[in-house]
Amino acid sequence: MKKLSLAIALFLTVLSTQAQTKSIPNITAQAPDEQESLAKDYFSQIMGVAMSATSNVKLFQFVYDWIGTPYHLGGDTKNGIDCSGFAYQLYNKVFNTAIGNNSRNIFSMVNPVDKEELKEGDLVFFKIHSRAITHVGVYIGNGKFAHASSSKGVMISYLADPYWTRYYYKGGRLLNDQQPVQNN
């Protein structure tokens, strides 16, 4: 959250400075709804995902805060995390929902969803060099998903990237009795 707060403060400072020099309204004095709108614009730009009025800002804040965290098999902290640890932490903190502790357990908790039907917060599963599910990420919109990559740590990737297309298995949405709670 410190990284996010610093980024938003810097963003607001730059815009406030622009407001003073270019007659743009000073946004630091705006209402919370307007600040949330600015946050959505900010995350849309830095993550390349068009956020809608219903987008979950907390989801994007969480992803942004974890970007660059190194990969560590079995890890679940900012010192190192694996794909299922990242998905677990995200669902716990953003949706106040506990999910499984490995990609196969998590898959058992979802209803399959067609790739074209994916929504923010849905899970995406991959079978990388295996017949079993070996990787999980969280869909954030516009064909992108956040995940903990074994080579680059927590990052955002495109489902349409040839590598991910090759190993994509299915998307999934939590079963009705385990639906996440929106914590905006």
From TrEMBL:
Domain of life: Bacteria
Signal peptide extent: 1-19
The protein's name: Glycoside hydrolase
Family membership: Belongs to the peptidase C40 family.
Keywords associated with the record: Hydrolase, Protease, Signal, Thiol protease
PANTHER family: ENDOPEPTIDASE NLPC-RELATED, MUREIN DD-ENDOPEPTIDASE MEPS/MUREIN LD-CARBOXYPEPTIDASE
Limits of the NlpC/P60 domain: 53-175
GO annotation terms (biological process): proteolysis
GO molecular function ontology, one term from the record: cysteine-type peptidase activity
Family annotation (SUPFAM superfamilies): Cysteine proteinases
Taxonomic lineage from the root: Bacteria, Pseudomonadati, Bacteroidota, Sphingobacteriia, Sphingobacteriales
